[in-house]
Amino acid sequence: MAYPTLLRSDWEDLLPMKVPLPLSMSSKVFGESLVQALTPRSPLPLPKCLVNNQVQRPANAKTAVKRSTCKILFPGFDLEQHEDFELVPRIIGRNGCNVRWIASSTCKVRVRGRGSGHLELENGQYKEADAPLQISLSCASSKELESTVEKVLKLMQVIESHFVRYCHSKGLRSGKLYTLVRPEPLKACRSFRN
């Protein structure tokens, strides 16, 4: 059954209060909308996650996922002595190609620390972290971390060969450019008995 179409100008003056309704609608929809608009509304209940104005996690909410992490530090690189080498741009690659090759949807790669150019929020100000220059890797699984570390080490071998040639050309002593640092696994706590 077709209902006649009412224009807003046909019924706008009939409403006791201004109700925002569409510009045109069928008479059936108009009647239902009018009933809804004129029915007094009760205040909405607080969401279940808010109790005493505190956000509560639902019982079935996932807790923070433990991610596998490691760092690559650069003890052989001195910012002042090797400033012409431009280590960070070599790590990142042209238009970020090296970092994109290393990273995946579940693995984060970040170059951070002194000389990285990566600004972090600290005490309300953005500045470089007061830490040694490093590549931080964080992956969803240890298996993915291993494959990511392999990619980073391949890249570091190439960059280290360039670094050795750079040092020889400048007459500088070159040592090991990078070091892989893995976090130590947490040791199980022993319970103390009387």
UniProtKB/TrEMBL annotation:
Annotated protein name in UniProt: KHDC4/BBP-like KH-domain type I domain-containing protein
Q: Which residues form the KHDC4/BBP-like KH-domain type I domain?
A: 82-157
